Structures are given as C-alpha cells and as structure tokens.
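Residues pack. One example:


***
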Amino acid sequence: MEEVPSDKPTLRKIIHIDMDAYYASIEQRDNPEYKGKPIAVGGSPEGRGGVIATASYEARKYGVRSAMPSRRAKELCPQLIFVRPRFEVYKEVSGKIREIFSRYTDLIEPLSLDEAYLDVTVDKLNIGSAIDIAKLIKQSIKDELHLTASAGVSVSKFVAKIASDMQKPDGLTFIGPSKIVSFMESLPVEKFFGVGKVTADKMKRMGIHTGADLKKLSESDLTRYFGKSGRFFYKIVRGIDDRAVQPHREIKSVGAEDTFPYDLKETQYMVEELEKLAATVHDRLEKRNLKGRTITLKIKYSDFSQVTRSQSFPIGTNDKDVIAETARQLLMATDTEAVRVRLLGISLSNFNLAPTIKGFEDQLYLFTDDDL
C-alpha cells in the first residue's frame, strides 16, 4: 500500500534538566548541620562585600537570590549562613550527573555545571517516551547523588527550558506540541530568552506584557525596536525554534574570576590576585589544550560599575607568566588610584581550534502529544 505523506511538522524530543539550588543543595547534602536552614554559597558573612552564587530554598523564602550583594541578603535574612564555595566538588558532581544523562543519549548540550539539554528523539534504551526518560533521570539523580533536579519536556529547546522552571523544586513539566502556541501567548515577556530587565521595561512601556502582545507586532517592527533579537522574538512567540542540541559546543573563551570578601584598595594586592587567577586560567587552558590570542581583564568596582580591557597577540598563548603580566599591564592602564575593587577576572579567547568533526545528522520524527 502506498504510503500517504504526512502534513504534520517534524519535531524533536527535548529534555531540559536543571538542578535545584545546585551549590546550596550539595552543601546541605554534605553538611547535615545546614539541612533545613537558609544558606548562601559565596558572599561575605559580615555583609561587607561580594555577591552570593546561590541560595537554598529556605533562604529564597526571604527573597535571597543569586547575584545578590551579601549586605542585602543579610538584611533580608539575618540568620543566613554563608558557606565558602567548593567548585571542584560541584564540578565532580556535575560529571556524575552527565554520566547519568549519557545512559540515555549522547546528544547532550551542557549549559553550565547544573543544567543541560538532552535530545532523546532516539534514546539508547529504546524507551521512546521523553517524559519517562526525564522521570528516570530525576530518580537516578535522587537515588545516586541525593540531589533533586527539575525537568522540562517539549519539542524545542526554548519551551523545554521554560518548562523546567515551572514546578521547582523537584518538578517535571511537559508542554506538548498542541499546547505550545497558547503557552507562548500567555508567557510574561520577562520569561523570554534574551529579555532582561531593561528590555522587559521597554516592552512594558510599549504595552507589551505577554507573548500575545508581542505576537501583534510584525517582524520588521520587532527588528526596528529590538535589533537582531526582534527576529528571534518573532519566531519564538510562534513556537518556531529549530535549534538542535549541540553536544560539541565551540569553546569561545576560558577564564576565571573572583569576588573578594573585602574590596581591594592597594594595587599590590590586586596584582597578587591576578597572579592567582592567571594560574587558574593556565591550568584550564592546559586541560583543554588551548591557546588564546586575546587576553581580557575584567574589573568590577565597589559601586558595581564594571570595565574590561583586552590585549591581542599574533599567536596564541597559555603561558601563565604571559597571562599574569598582560593582566597586570591592563590593570595599570586603568585608574587604580582611589578605587575599591570587588571583583577581578581574566579570560582568554580567539583560539586556534582544529576543525571539528561533524556529528550525526539530525534525526527528525513525527509526534503527537502522546508520543512524548
């Protein structure tokens, strides 16, 4: 019998996994005295400087959030416990989470230590259901690592990522093809990828509060108001997102930065910190066998203003002394008198990367809501 062509769109099965309060949850897991208590990873116990990396859910009830200044976090939650970060531990646990992912698919795109996209259109164990795979992954993380994760399941990266945030912590949200249009129309504009506070405020002044409002504007109007992002907004609000999960993302930069418990006022201490950062960056470059042609220095001052300075070379380097000395020279080229520095960072970019081998061609199949 002749096969009848289908007019249904070709769609992927995408899972977005996002660990719950990742750094804080690891600290509570490893330190029983922190369980059930409001803790913040990073920042300063005295509230004199630094910003927190993440907060436990107990602290979030008081309004404490990541990237919040320590002083403000302490004001909101006087009993807040500040914990020094253990990034090597977080990285090690992230590797174990990645191993759990790889049981089901090799199409994994890490976004950070605690979140990743998975394409399970074709899964290794022939389970077939993305929802079931998400449940199995969440249960394995809970049983083996004693942590919780939230998952979003859909047919595109954007919707899956939004879905994973809808029932935190320990949630699982599925948004099928038939629900995407209405979901996008009801979504507040600040939830759209690429819409920060400034853009959201601009949209609201224009009377754009939801995806439905955004959908009323033409592509040319959105481009005129929001530049290149306007084209993305035009597509995404209509559920058009054909971005593939990229298991081999190109590394664009390698760096390290540190927020200090106390603001630095003396240049000699800033230089000492730069030497430590240069050693860290050197180690990270060595592990990846990378050499960068551009060295960038990042400085954040006590008033939260920020500057960057860069120096490029004709050939790549990963030499620790070259990185440290270049960063020092870039620092001295700024105004170091009467300033208070709360953060320093060094990064290298413009790598001479070898061509990557093209992976498997995207395998697309036809789905209804029930198939996922």
Notes: The mean pLDDT is 86. The radius of gyration is 23 Å.
